[in-house]
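Appendix B, record 7
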Amino acid sequence: MELNTIKPAPGAKKPRRRVGRGGGSGLGKTAGRGHKGQRARAGGYHKVGFEGGQMPLQRRLPKRGFLAVTIDKAVEVRSGDLAKIPGGTIDLDGLKKAGLVAKETKRAKIILAGGRGRQRRGARGGPGGEEARGEEEARSGREGLTGAECPPTPSRPSASSATSSAG
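Structure tokens (predicted):
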């Protein structure tokens, strides 16, 4: 193949549409816009989603779901990185001290990735993936990853205290 022999595939390059150039072109007179109406006018068309005054579809349908505010405060920790933590038990404070998670992290989940650790240890206070939980339990000989969330921060009242104070 030479640079001077390269051509686009047949039919890939269409000629530009020239509107309003006589009836014989097929796009003369109204230039493909039809007769009258809002679409035929210059500058006359509506915004995306506008349905002529009818309630638009995106406003007729109910809102669904939300984006959790703590999504940036939850991280995943690879099980192979747990060997960097000194001591017997793994918790959120230990992960922060070892530099595996940021200081503002509220939740950490241990996932099975990055090799298998050689130490026997348990983990407390955070959710873990099923494979990582089974691996950790087999290694430590006890149920370590409970799947329980970390305790709520003092600034946010728990759901039980909010309902008891409301009554």
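Remarks on this record: The mean pLDDT is 77. Helices lie at 57-60, 92-97, 130-140, 159-166.
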